[in-house]
DNA sequence: TAGTGAGTTGGAGTGCACTCCAGGCAAGCG
DNA sequence: CGCTTGCCTGGAGTGCACTCCAACTCACTA
């Protein structure tokens, strides 16, 4: 992968060590060990290496990748798209244009979502204000509602 | 339901008519007719009335309700929570405090989500900038990447 | 040396939110 | 009259993203 496929910001890592067990990574990334193995099976991880006994040993690079995946996941990118992205990263630099396209289109999605959320926030504020008034005026039961 | 359970803003309605068929409502709300029937089955609709032949006839009030449901849905409120809300609305005004609680807690969720999306947007901007540079520098294939 | 705890696998199961299907009814049209 | 269109029902099926299971290995401690 290219240098830009590691996250730009660093988050606190368990220790200064450079190889992590699956449960350490699960804790760090907020995913279950199951999910980490599943990510690997479906091709969402860039080949995790193993200890001499066959246990997974994640590197800081893997943690960086998981940071990015976590961000994309939180913003609702489908797993299939993330896998496509991961594949492109593995395929090398001739895929940068497509990667750019994928990321840009996702960015548009995210922008749209922010706008949607914002507009819902307005509706919620309005309704919460109304309910607040209602609760402030008569908190006790025993009156009839105008409609319903 | 109370007056505040209709949406504060009006959106364009199919026609000035006051009773709509399921497919008109599907078009309007951006849901399938299947989904509208399903909403009713699970108790997410406040009793839709019927024509003399048993077909659903939605009112403007139903459309208002669907506006709200659509907003909540877009902001990721689980259907189960929306059903709880709908039940409370049906139960009458003694549930306003709980409704307020539910809405307020959802508002916090939405605020958190906006912040998350915003932070992802920053990451995306950063990566897209890097990819942009890369594409600007060498759009043709045939070179080796620094890593992988 | 036996037990505990953390890891391994492939495959099956879960929960959510739809989505579709088969079979049927009612209205309108040529 | 037959045909098409739109709607009805209960129940089954789908896709996504996990989530768990059974059966196993390995390292460590009492």
Automatic annotation (TrEMBL), chains A, B:
<protein>
    <recommendedName>
        <fullName>HTH merR-type domain-containing protein</fullName>
    </recommendedName>
</protein>
<dbReference type="Pfam" id="PF13411">
    <property type="entry name" value="MerR_1"/>
</dbReference>
<dbReference type="GO" id="GO:0003700">
    <property type="term" value="F:DNA-binding transcription factor activity"/>
</dbReference>
<dbReference type="GO" id="GO:0003677">
    <property type="term" value="F:DNA binding"/>
</dbReference>
<feature type="domain" description="HTH merR-type">
    <location>
        <begin position="19"/>
        <end position="88"/>
    </location>
</feature>
<dbReference type="InterPro" id="IPR009061">
    <property type="entry name" value="DNA-bd_dom_put_sf"/>
</dbReference>
<dbReference type="InterPro" id="IPR047057">
    <property type="entry name" value="MerR_fam"/>
</dbReference>
<keyword id="KW-0238">DNA-binding</keyword>
<dbReference type="InterPro" id="IPR000551">
    <property type="entry name" value="MerR-type_HTH_dom"/>
</dbReference>
